[in-house]
Design brief:
The structure holds 2 protein chains of 2 kinds.
Chain A lengths: L1 E4 L2 E5 L5 H9 L14 H16 L4 E6 L5 E8 L6 E8 L6 H18 L4 E7 L3 H8 L4 E5 L3 E7 H12 L4
Helix pairs in contact in A: 1-2
Chain B lengths: L2 H10 L22 H15 L5 H4 L5 H10 L2
């Protein structure tokens, strides 16, 4: 499945993306706040093979983002798909990728996918409290904090709030 | 508008307030600065001061004072 918007393509991952995914997720700086990933590419390929079954059943969608130059630069995933809500996560960019605006576009595209394509009215996500800039960025969309642990903040974002605040973000990236 | 008020507003946009900000702070070179923080500050400038900058332009100022002076000039 492909989503093409804002000069970005989101493409569901294939086994051939395993090496990029491992590289994105095991970078020392970028991986501080995400779940640990084994650096074995074959294991990642196995994981993707099983994921493709879940994708076929519309149980999960894992995207790799490709920019206008054909460079694969980020990932994002929709999972824990339930009747009235689903979860987004695995938002990780390529370590040396410099186009920050494109990374933000990926987040907006992913939220649009959940609200517009999948038709949800709300989504949830969690962010490590130490990941300050990500917490603050997500708060621009006015999500609700529904739970808090020692390490994480758990958010629910309503479609209405996303749509009302998306323009504030776009004002600064177009 | 006073610079102290502007600095307080700037600081309130950051999730982590465990550091000192002054007019001389070179925010772009600070540990807290990254592309998402750039976006957060840009939204603050737009919402609170009606100033619109690209991410690249916001990265061009060498201190909070310099940014404040620019914002003042646009009021």
């Amino acid at each position: 499945m492909n989503i093409d918007r804002y000069n970005i393509r989101l493409q569901t991952v294939e086994e051939e993306d395993a090496e990029d995914i491992v590289r994105f997720r095991t970078d020392e700086k970028r991986s501080r706040f995400i779940s640990a990933t084994n650096n074995d590419i074959e294991l990642q390929k196995e994981w993707i093979k099983k994921y493709k079954e879940r994708e076929k059943n519309n149980e999960e969608f894992y995207f790799i983002a490709i920019d206008e130059n054909g460079e694969k630069f980020a990932t994002y995933r929709v999972y824990n798909i339930e009747k009235n809500i689903c979860e987004i996560g695995s938002w990780v960019s390529k370590p040396e990728y410099k186009n920050a605006v494109n990374s933000i576009k990926v987040d907006i595209l992913m939220k649009e996918f959940v609200f517009l394509n999948l038709g949800y009215q709300q989504l949830r996500f969690e962010v490590n409290k130490g990941n300050h800039s990500v917490v603050k960025y997500h708060k621009l969309f006015k999500p609700i904090i529904v739970k808090e642990s020692d390490d994480n903040l758990y958010f629910v974002l309503e479609k209405r709030n996303f749509e009302e605040n998306r323009k504030r973000i776009f004002n600064n990236i177009k | 508008m006073e610079i102290t008020e502007f600095i307080l507003n700037f600081k309130s946009q950051l999730e982590n307030d465990n550091f000192e900000l002054t007019g001389e702070t070179d925010y772009v070179k600070s540990d807290f600065w990254d592309s998402l923080t750039n976006m957060v500050i840009n939204v603050m400038l737009n919402d609170d001061y009606n100033v619109q900058l690209t991410p690249e332009e916001l990265n061009q100022f060498s201190s909070i004072q310099e940014l404040f002076d620019y914002v003042q000039s646009k009021q």
